[in-house]
Every structure is written in structure tokens, then in C-alpha cells.
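User: My instructor asked us to take a sequence, write out its structure as C-alpha cells, and then describe one feature of it. I'm not sure where to start. Here is the sequence I was given:
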Amino acid sequence: MEGGLPKGNLILVSGKIGTGTSTLAMQYIVRGVTDYGEPGLFVSLERGRDALYQETAGFGWPLKTLENQGNLVLMGGPMGEVTTFKKKVGAKIQDLMSEITEAAGKIRADRVAIDGPFHELFPDKAMFRQGLTALVRRLREMGCTTVITSTIEEGTSTLSRSGIEEEVADGVVVLYYEGDGLTRERALEVRKMRGTKHSEELRFFEIADGGMRLIEPAKKSKGSHNNNPKCLFCGAPLEKPMNVRGGGRASFCDSCAEKLEKKGLLKWYKDKTIGLRKPLLHVIEKF
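Assistant: Let's start with the prediction itself. The C-alpha cells for your sequence are:
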């Protein structure tokens, strides 16, 4: 993405359950503070503060220390507690939105993340669209870049639970956790990103010590198309590379190609003009 998320944008991070959307949102906030000196606000509608401390301890993220330094604010709690408190005190959604902007302003936050079913706080989709648009506009005026997460329901084609976030957002990052048999692999793609060029490739990643880490694809050496082509993902030599687009070389080995096929990311059709199989691959647009 030419260096990162464009400042002031709203970015939707979505994926099915277990893909790592909450981890990516928190990592965006924590790394902003520790690596770039950018204060951050994390609003959770699924976890309380103690749960966040516990769940992020394995990544080595010092949430308490960052809070004590005044560079991080944690807000929210489980959705049930938020809605119960809201009814008890007669608060409105506008009050929560005002609290978010006030908290961000107090620490002069550069980054804000809203994690959880934010749309459930609104009575309908129209109100959610209006509320989200208004909140992001205010945060943008304050110089904040905002990440919002959403879970994709199984068997749906939308990129969020409500179907609204992807329309309002300036950028969409989709996470995958797919596999067959006893193994699964994680991958992500940038579906759209206004204001910057971005990769059109699916990128594999892992969640380990320190959080999420992209797995760098094997680099091609000069002239590899004609001399020693290698698999884009694992770096294995391609003894019989598949033909692509009238003579180009596919940059993945049979093993990786098989994995992509099983995940539904790679499908084939027969090119009648040259009589060879060619991949219909939205993951890799050019080589």
C-alpha cells in the first residue's frame, strides 16, 4: 500500500470467525504507539479490559504500560454490558459516539480501532450508515485513521455483517483462514484502498510471537521467466511451469497450485487460441 493506510481513511477489516480481525486491529493500534509514536484508541464491543490484557499478553504487547503513559485508551466491553448500561442510564448511541471522539481528542489519537458488532447499537441500517459516516467524518477532521472490524457470515457474499461498512469504508482488507484435511493457512487481500496503489495479490500470513506477520513471497531473479522460474509462494524451482496469457509463466509450483485450487482461489479454463490451460486467478494478476 505504498507505505501504509492513507491518513484519515476508514478501513474495514473483515473475515470469518477465527481469521484474526481483532488481532490485526489491536496490532495496528499498538504498533502505532510503539513504532511510530502515534497515540491510539481501541474500542472493543466484545472484550473487557482484563480480557484484552490477558489475550494480548502472549504477543508481548504492554497495554497497561501504554495506558499509563497516556498513549493508549481502551474503551467498551462486551456488547451485553454496553447495551445494558445504555438502557439503564438512558444513554443514546450519540453519547457513545461523542465519548469515542472525546477520548480520541484527549490523547490526540492518530489511530482509532472499533472492534466488534458496532452496527448492533443502531436500530436499523439507515441509522447505522448515517452514524458511522458522521463518526468517521469527525475522526477524520481530528486527523485520525480508523479501522473497524466485522465478521463475515458463512455462506454470504457480503464483506461485513451488516453490508454497510464496505460501502462506507475507504479501504477493505479481507482475512482468510482456509484449509483441507488437518491443515489450515491464513491469507489476506486488499480488496480496495482509496488514495494509494495496493497489491492485487493474496498474501499469506501467520500469527505468532509479536502478532501477525506477512510471509514474504519468494523473489524472482532477473530473467527467471526464461531461465529458472520459481514458485511465488514457496520458492521451489518450476521444472514445468504452466503457460499463462499466451506464453508467460505461472509463478507457483504444483503443490501451491493444488492448495489454491482446493480453496477455490484458482480455477481453470481452456484457451482455444493456443490450446493450453490458463488460470483464472484473482489472487495473482500479473507476473
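For the description part of your assignment, you could build on this observation: The chain has a mean pLDDT of 80. Try explaining in your own words what that tells you about the chain.
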